[in-house]
């Protein structure tokens, strides 16, 4: 309680409020498949005044529930995280915790990944070969509602990519439900119906039904076609020697 004349009380309350805002830490959740990388990112970010890592996720299936529970200011998310790839996980973060900004980390400064990331609602995109302080700047910018693109990306280049993405042919992937997207990724990562059912806490029969619906919607006939789709769509990171995904242009033969 602030004592004194009403005008003075109001003035002191304003100063107290501003002081509280200045002291408030930016809460961060890290989502990356590698414990060593998560710890390195945690050390890097918590060296910055006002940054606090409040949670970590090892795969994309955990991220949505974690941010919904912790309500962080920023989620730093690896594009190639297992379980549910980063762009789709970013969509779920934005849906389940709209106040949480997303910064995506990627090995690739590639048109497809960047355009998909920003269309998913991410505010930051940082290429992993960038300087370390680019990540801290991206987190700070995203926490304040601003977009941040690390070198070698530029706002003009990315706006051109986004315009091109908006005029691209319809994407069959958009017709999938959230569960079908999860099953797609886990199948592409080599999971069986039994292991997928266990991961998603559903029955094997339900996993098979999701698989059948997903294959029908994507017009796929077999596992080879599914793997090709996952590579072309960026759901799986491309192996060395395979080009990065470019929607509408098929990958070379995998045989």
CATH architecture of the largest domain: 3-Layer(aba) Sandwich
Helix content: 40-55%
> What do we call the CATH topology of the largest domain?
Rossmann fold
How many angstroms does the end-to-end distance come to? 74 Å
Q: Count helical runs.
A: 11
What is the CATH superfamily classification of the largest domain? Response regulator
CATH class of the largest domain: Alpha Beta
Radius of gyration: 21 Å
User: Mean pLDDT score, rounded?
Assistant: 83
The helix-strand sequence is: HEHEHEHEHEHEHHHHH
Number of domains: 2
Brief digest:
The protein is an alpha/beta fold and 255 residues long. The protein has two domains: 23-165, 3-Layer(aba) Sandwich (Rossmann fold), CATH 3.40.50.2300; 172-233, Arc Repressor Mutant, subunit A (Orthogonal Bundle), CATH 1.10.10.
Task: Describe the structure using short key phrases.
255 residues, alpha/beta, Rossmann fold, Arc Repressor Mutant, subunit A, 2 domains, 11 helices, 12% strand, globular, disordered C terminus
């Amino acid at each position: 309680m602030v004592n004194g004349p009403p005008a003075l009380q109001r003035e002191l309350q304003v100063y107290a409020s501003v002081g509280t805002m200045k002291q408030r830490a930016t809460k961060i959740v890290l989502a990356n498949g590698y414990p060593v990388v998560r710890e390195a990112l945690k050390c890097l970010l918590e060296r910055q005044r006002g940054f606090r890592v409040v949670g970590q996720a090892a795969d994309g299936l955990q991220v949505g529930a974690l941010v919904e529970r912790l309500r962080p200011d920023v989620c730093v998310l690896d594009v190639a995280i297992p379980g549910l790839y980063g762009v789709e996980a970013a969509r779920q973060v934005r849906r389940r915790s709209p106040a949480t900004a997303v910064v995506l980390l990627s090995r690739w400064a590639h048109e497809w990944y960047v355009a998909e990331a920003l269309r998913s609602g991410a505010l930051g995109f940082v290429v992993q070969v960038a300087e370390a302080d680019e990540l801290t700047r991206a987190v700070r910018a995203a926490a304040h509602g601003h977009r941040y693109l690390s070198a070698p990306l530029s706002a003009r280049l990315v706006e051109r990519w986004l315009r091109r993405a908006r005029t691209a042919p319809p994407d069959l992937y958009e017709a999938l439900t959230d569960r079908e997207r999860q099953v797609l990724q886990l199948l592409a990562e080599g999971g069986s119906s039994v292991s997928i059912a266990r991961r998603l806490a559903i029955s094997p029969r339900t996993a098979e039904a999701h698989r059948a619906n997903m294959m029908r919607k994507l017009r796929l006939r077999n596992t080879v076609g599914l793997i090709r789709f996952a590579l072309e769509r960026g759901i799986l990171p491309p192996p060395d020697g395979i080009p990065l995904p470019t929607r509408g242009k098929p990958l070379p033969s995998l045989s």
